[in-house]
Write a structure and sequence with these properties.
The chain is α/β, with parallel strands linked by helices. The chain folds into 2 domains: 23-103 and 158-434, FAD/NAD(P)-binding domain (3-Layer(bba) Sandwich), CATH 3.50.50; 104-157, no CATH class. Helix content is 27%, strand content 24%. The chain has 11 helices and 22 strands. Strand 16 (260-264) and strand 17 form a beta hairpin. Helix 1 (30-41) runs parallel beside helix 5 (164-177) and helix 1 (30-41) packs parallel to helix 11. It is globular.
Length: 446
């Protein structure tokens, strides 16, 4: 069972490394590509450097949800802009990215869960969202083929979905048409910093002069920051996802209860994932950061399985170097694509649970399965801010929620780089919130 993205096919983007650009974007995920696209449209010369392939890591391994529902209140207006950007891209990009408005539903097995939904709905109403709490009967009407009787649900009919491993490559091609240079298979070994400011980027193919750099490296961001004496407290957790063979239609949108999440895909199958389960490899950075995660871990002590060590070459593996010379091979070159194996036991259980939820499906056949490493922060809220080095903007820690909101955070990152008005209160997303004595405020993480 392997990840469906064709990571073994030849690179699509093989431009020549420029000598100089206005901005270098490190990382070819949804955040990096959208940041570069927005910068190019604003008149900046920009290059995206991706050590492996565009969208080959978490940006194409996610559930494919594009949701306002359940987000931290500070994210909701940003997500509303992202939703508008997704709709516009679907019109402008001459490829079908799978964007559909099919709604997102959170299902509660007990009344306590319904109470959590009711606590969040006022945030939705403050921003004019159509989110509503459904009764047990209304929920049953929404899922007439389900054998489970849920106590209620949170339902946002305006939420959407897209096909992750189709959407991002299409977005990247659109960005290139608008002037973005993308180079796959080009790892950044480090920043060139002089007088406390970024003056360039050193890559395996040479140096690029620039005055601004955006780090959007997902699970790899901390490793590059530590190379320069900077640190943030992320954890990279493994999350398993599976894809079924084509099945009868039981629900067109995305839904999740206390056992599994499911989403109808364009190919007629379903994307399945275990709800609330992820695996954390204990490495040097995770060990240092764990104290900051006491609160979220205690909130959900059974949701995280601790594993003693990451496989060789992973960003936080015990043997992965934290220091290296600019003229030597970096950890980013040694592992071009972070491609973790799926948890087979969880995959088998997903098939059984989905079949038990919808008996009309019969035996559920898994076509393929994969896993991704999610970069998460202690408060389940990303960092989108200037770092304490002039010319460096960090956009990371998307906590598994980055696919849907990525276009808007890319636009915000571009505004930060250009010193334009961001348009939002970004205090919640500041770089230094874990070291400035602030009280940790957990996002809703619904």
């Amino acid at each position: 069972m392997t990840f469906p993205f064709q990571i073994q096919t030849p690179p699509e983007h093989t431009a020549v490394l420029p000598d100089r650009v206005d901005v270098v974007v490190i990382g070819g995920g949804i955040i990096g590509v959208m940041t570069a696209w927005e910068l190019a449209k604003a008149g900046s010369s920009v290059v995206v450097l991706e050590k492996g392939r565009i969208g080959a890591e978490q940006s194409s391994r996610n559930w494919g949800w594009i949701r306002n529902q359940g987000r931290d209140p500070s994210e909701i207006p940003i997500m509303q802009e992202a939703a508008a950007m997704w709709r516009q891209m679907a019109k402008d990009i001459p490829e079908d990215i799978g964007l559909r408005q099919t709604g997102v539903c959170y299902l509660a097995s007990a009344p306590q869960g319904v109470g959590r939904f009711e606590d969040w709905v006022p945030f939705a109403k403050d921003h004019g969202l159509d989110s509503q709490v459904l009764s047990a009967k209304q929920t049953a009407d929404l899922f007439p083929d389900a054998a489970i009787k849920w106590a209620g649900a949170l339902w946002t009919a305006s939420d959407m979905k897209a096909e992750p491993w189709v959407a991002l490559p299409a977005i990247a091609r659109a960005a290139v048409r608008d002037g973005v240079t993308i180079i796959e298979g080009c790892a950044v070994r480090g920043l060139d910093i002089s007088g406390g400011a970024v003056t360039g980027v050193n890559t395996e193919k040479g140096r690029i002069e620039c005055a601004e750099t955006v780090l959007a490296g997902g699970a790899w961001s901390q490793l590059l920051l530590r190379r320069h004496g900077l640190t943030i407290p992320p954890l990279a957790v493994r999350a398993t996802v599976a894809a079924t063979a084509p099945l009868p239609d039981v629900f067109q949108g995305g839904a999740v209860d206390d056992r599994l999440a499911f989403r109808r895909r364009a190919d007629g199958g379903y994307t399945l994932a275990p709800e609330g389960f992820h695996e954390l490899y204990i490495g040097p950075d995770a060990f240092r950061a764990l104290a900051g995660y006491t609160k979220p871990l205690l909130k959900d002590p059974l949701g995280t399985k601790l594993l003693p060590a990451a496989p060789r070459g992973y960003p936080d593996a015990w043997g992965t170097p934290r220091k290296w010379d600019m003229d030597s091979v970096s950890p980013f070159e040694r592992m071009r694509i972070l491609n973790p194996l799926a948890n087979r036991a969880k995959v088998a259980k997903l098939a059984r649970d989905f079949a038990a939820t919808f008996p009309k499906l019969g035996e559920v056949q898994i076509k393929t399965a994969w896993a991704g490493m999610i970069d998460t922060m202690p408060d389940v809220v990303p960092i989108v801010d200037r770092a304490p080095v002039d010319g460096l903007t960090v956009v990371t820690g998307m906590c598994g929620h980055g696919f849907g909101i990525g276009p808007a955070f890319g636009r915000i990152a571009a505004r930060i780089v250009r010193s334009d008005d961001v348009g939002y209160d970004m205090h919640r997303f500041r770089y230094g919130r874990f070291t400035d004595g602030s009280k940790l405020m957990l996002g809703p993480n619904l």
